[in-house]
Design a protein that fits this description.
The structure is a homotrimer. Chain A is of the alpha/beta class. Chain A has twelve helices and twelve strands. Chain A folds into two domains: 160 residues, Aspartate/ornithine carbamoyltransferase (Rossmann fold, 3-Layer(aba) Sandwich); 151 residues, Rossmann fold (3-Layer(aba) Sandwich), CATH 3.40.50. Chain A has a five-stranded parallel sheet with strand order 1-7-6-2-3, with helices on both faces. Chain A is globular. Chain A starts with a strand and ends with a helix. Chains in contact: A-B, A-C, B-C. Chains A and B meet through α2 and α12 of A and β3, β5 and α3 of B.
């Protein structure tokens, strides 16, 4: 494994989940793999869960870890050729990234969507430049358009908690005060489309996700109808993907908030969210504190999903 | 050991000091205990000594260490239920802290008094929330009201340098330009009250400490009288504890500065301070540079006190 | 080895380069040396390459690493005696540095020239205070006036790529939009003067370096003439050293930019620079992207130069 950005990078998902369960049973079994190997974690955006879980996964594998926090504002790399670099960009990407690559064995990169240009966000400039110029395996710690470590952890969690072989999984948009990227729903849909589940996506009109991720998945604009018989409710807010209103917030309608009445429409569904979560916007206190909520177990699987990715990259060095 | 905030959490202090001496003789003897164990250090306030000594102690024990610097200003966690979280608090304490807990084995937390509300400071909100919700052993790396790793290091230092079995130990207030919390004097008094010493506290009127820490200890308002026959002088500034003037600076009177003339009243007392120290405010150059000053040895024992606490927590996992 | 600031601290350079090649062949051969040893890296200025390469070298040797980022603005240490410390300096150097020293085994320090006072910069105050008061081996991670880890890496790189026993090495000034310290050229000249090379320095008039580093080296003000027959071109900008215009930028003349025409005057010279580099100011895209450019290989040798220094310090503990 050289790259981890999308579901397809994992190959067969059943095999990947089996590997995750094996790792979870004994986190330190592969500690020899990371001996004398160094993980460089490059953060262009701040992080709590991703940073902690990635560092923990790396340590489980016996790797050294170097964390580099780069302020998006101060990190001005020149990317064009021919430019006379007499301005505010002190370094060219063609030197900066190979140099980072030469002091480590694997690189993780976090770089969020900026909502300044859809083209820029969806080209995943920063991640792609690391892939192209670092000469090292690169994985996303949440890019502009995908968050595969989260979606893989979500899949592991669903496999742990499912009570039947082909569960109904509902991705539900929910309200939020600020514009959020589509990385989490994109990757969730990407993974669920490849998993052995019945995926339904529900959101207000105007919030349609990128068809390259949605593919054939069913979209149901009636949230209550979508919830009927669901085994898992995956809540998430995102801003508009569509070109003319890209990054906008069309609705903060709390009729979309997930409450007990809606959960009662489901088949005793488990409630999931990637966290951090706005209570009483995304979900009521009652639902998130109920036994149906598995958000903490889901977060704890971030360590496992990351460890599988690092393990595979180490095995492939 | 699950919690370390006060002297009583250590149990018998003589046993704890013996353990400290044993650890100090061979710091790496217990390295197996920390294998595959992770310490999370959460700093809401900046730190030099505590950060370095805690990281060192953790490494001595073979633990992995993750340092998390959280800006008090940016860390806005919702703590109430029922609130519609559409404002500036992106996460609820009920999710944030269990998630931190799930990626580590032991948590250290630093969170100073803010002097905005005595009730808030003395309820140790942040620390108590970590204890309640993290599901992991928690120790204070200086809270709002106590600094037990410092006081335990102070006790170890006194036991190392004492020349008689029941030394006279004087905690002396000394002037400082800014308002400082009571965490260090509170813990010092807390520990000395349980130790085999003769404790005297001296300070200007109005600087009385919390009676829950002072308990029966003698308070002598005449500094010179307090110093007579002392074996250890422990200098420290603190702001007012009393309700109506909580957090105020009543005096910057340099008549309370500790100088050679006052040290000459003692029984060749050793001079102690937790550092950082304002020279010629708290103490004169002459005293702190004299052979009687043991402030560096005291600081170096921070590694030892922390290692005993981590060792006990590891043994109890 | 107790101190590393200048070429002479390495002793015989041939021996040092041999040691570097041995380390490079098997980076983990000396991992036992660092067992239970802690490196403290103190940064008064930000760092990418130095931080990563030093951490990597330390890990190669099995050391624990603690990184301390200190903002120059907030780090106000009192250095004088007798001062009443009631102002903005909360700690005296005589306490701060010994305390840092007591939690580690080796200290690396980065502290750039400020260009406020030539006397201050060239006295290397911060570094010298660490050497004097920390009680531990200290190495420069770039001081105000030298950058020995860079120059040692440069020497290793030249030894790797040279095609004859006594190559001609040209240090060429090149234009840059901002004033840069002399640390890199000073150390380069310092090392080349001790190495088995033919050193020529070329720069516009007014950019003469400190004679204590230049010593007998040839200075040629005609850049083209200097390049004739060169085996290595080492490009670098620096601001004025001379007293009356210390720290000034006299020229941004792009006639000094290194381009293919100039490289054609050389003996197929390799192109070197410490990075980060301003393209089309210091060097054209064409030259830096040509096979003659060895800037990435040079950067990767930063890990090696640092590892030799740490290894020697560990062997000498």
């Amino acid at each position: 494994m050289k790259i981890f950005i999308n579901a397809k990078d994992l190959g067969n998902l059943n095999t990947a989940v089996k590997e995750a369960f094996e790792v979870k049973k004994n986190r330190f079994m592969y500690k020899h793999l990371g001996e004398n190997k160094t993980l460089l974690m490059v953060f262009f955006n701040s992080s709590l869960r991703t940073r902690l879980s990635t560092q923990k996964a790396s340590m489980n594998l016996g790797m050294n870890t170097i964390v580099l926090d780069i302020n998006h504002g101060t990190w001005k790399l020149e990317t064009e050729r021919g430019i006379i670099m007499d301005g505010d960009k002190p370094e060219h990407i063609l030197e900066a990234i190979p140099v980072m690559g030469c002091y480590c064995d694997i690189i993780g990169v976090r770089s969020f969507a900026k909502f300044e240009s859809k083209l820029d966000d969806y080209s995943e400039n920063i991640l792609q430049q690391f892939i192209r110029y670092s000469n090292k395996p690169v994985f996303s710690m949440e890019g502009a358009t995908t968050h595969p470590l989260q979606a893989f952890a979500d899949l592991i969690t669903i496999e742990e908690f499912k009570k039947k072989s082909h569960p109904k999984v509902v991705l539900s948009w929910a309200p939020h005060p600020k514009a959020l990227p589509q990385a989490v729903p994109n990757s969730f849909v990407d993974f669920m489309n490849e998993a052995d589940v019945d995926l339904v996506i529900t959101h207000p009109k105007g919030y349609e996700l990128d068809p390259r991720f949605v593919r054939g998945a069913m979209v149901e604009y009636n949230q209550r109808k979508a919830f009927e018989g669901a085994d898992f409710i995956y809540a998430k807010n995102w801003a508009v993907y569509e070109d003319t209103r890209y990054g906008q917030v069309l609705s903060k309608d709390r009729n979309w908030t997930i409450d007990t009445a809606k959960m009662n429409l489901t088949n005793h569904a488990k409630f999931m969210h990637c966290l951090p979560i706005r209570r009483n916007m995304i979900v009521t206190d009652e639902v998130i504190e109920s036994p149906q909520s598995i958000v903490i177990q889901e977060a704890s699987n971030r360590e496992i999903s990351c460890q599988v990715v690092l393990k595979r990259m180490l095995e492939n060095l």
